[in-house]
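Sequence design from tokenized structure. All designs in this work follow the same two-part layout: the structure record, then the generated sequence. An example of the structure record is given first.
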């Protein structure tokens, strides 16, 4: 194991060279009690819906040393995903390749480039990634509960390295900058954002991606059938969000899907369009369920307005 100190400037330069738009470092200390209490209160209120894994493994979630024994430093990175051309109905984060695959490869490379030892994480273990991104100085958690990077918005995936080495310098957390704005809460069609927290039971992202079984009949899908970007798009900090890397841009077959084709989506088409995509999370049946509900609510076959200019 390399027990030397990491040079923070070198780590950040290596991260930039791999395409990460932000990188920060923090000592791997247990989470402060108020943060833990807030999280436990959120799950006790049932706001995590049936994502029961969020309430499990608390000892690993709140103490990095329990997850990676001997860890000294957490390195948090952000990878941009904003698509250049928009696919109506599908959340921006799911336009391209599955971020787990893309991020995992880049994190492995970063670990190797900086000569560190430890583990990498991308949304696959009990790691409170928004907390660590904030603690590593990348940005602040907006009222829509996503992390906002100053001047870069919120269309990025987060990844973490938990490493055994100490760093020569650590970053400071950033104070919230939402001020009196509440555009995101006003843009939410279901009232899922309240008191700076998310009630997943009402969130269209949760309902169309994570939820199994029928959708509540009054779910206001409006113009979406996979995920929801309304609160993100309403945020004034999104105006300068950088374009995503090539892996997160939509494929030509996805861009050329016609509205009527969604209603008749076959398992083969689904596999072609989403075989390497995060949309697999909902599964073929889940996607069909969403499309069927959309068409039923609108009283006509599936149609969504096209936005050739890309996301606003
Ligand atoms: S993703 Fe959509 S439903 Fe969920 S909080 Fe944001 S605006 Fe509301
Ligand atoms: S829309 Fe306004 S309140 Fe919501 S996250 Fe952005 S800045 Fe904060």
């Amino acid at each position: 194991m390399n027990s030397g100190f990491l040079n923070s400037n070198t780590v950040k330069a290596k991260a930039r060279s791999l395409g990460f738009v932000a990188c920060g470092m923090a000592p791997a200390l247990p989470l402060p009690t108020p943060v833990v209490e807030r999280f436990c209160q959120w799950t006790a209120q049932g706001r995590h819906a049936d994502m029961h894994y969020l309430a499990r493994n608390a000892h690993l979630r709140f103490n990095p040393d329990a997850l990676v024994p001997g860890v000294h430093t957490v390195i948090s990175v952000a990878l941009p995903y904003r698509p250049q051309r928009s696919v109506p109905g599908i959340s921006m984060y799911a336009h391209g390749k599955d971020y787990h695959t893309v991020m995992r490869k880049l994190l492995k490379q970063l670990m190797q480039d900086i000569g560190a030892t430890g583990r990498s994480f991308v949304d696959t273990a009990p790691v409170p990634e928004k907390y660590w991104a904030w603690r590593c100085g990348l940005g602040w958690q907006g009222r829509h509960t996503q992390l906002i990077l100053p001047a870069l918005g919120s269309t990025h995936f987060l990844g973490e390295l938990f490493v055994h080495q100490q760093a020569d310098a650590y970053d400071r957390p950033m104070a919230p900058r939402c001020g009196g704005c509440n555009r995101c809460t006003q843009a939410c069609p279901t009232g899922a954002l309240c008191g700076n927290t998310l009630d997943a039971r009402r969130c269209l992202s949760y309902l169309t991606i994570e939820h199994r079984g029928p959708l509540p009949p009054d779910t206001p899908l409006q113009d979406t059938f996979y995920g929801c970007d309304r609160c993100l798009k309403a945020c004034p900090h999104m105006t300068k969000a950088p374009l995503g890397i090539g892996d997160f841009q939509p494929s030509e077959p996805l861009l050329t899907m016609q509205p009527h084709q969604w209603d008749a989506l076959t398992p083969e088409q689904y596999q072609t369009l989403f075989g390497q995509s995060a949309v697999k999370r909902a599964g073929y049946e889940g996607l069909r369920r969403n499309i069927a509900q959309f068409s039923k609510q609108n009283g006509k076959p599936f149609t969504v307005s096209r936005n050739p200019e890309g996301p606003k």
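Residues 8-163 form one domain. We note this feature because it recurs in several other targets discussed in the main text.
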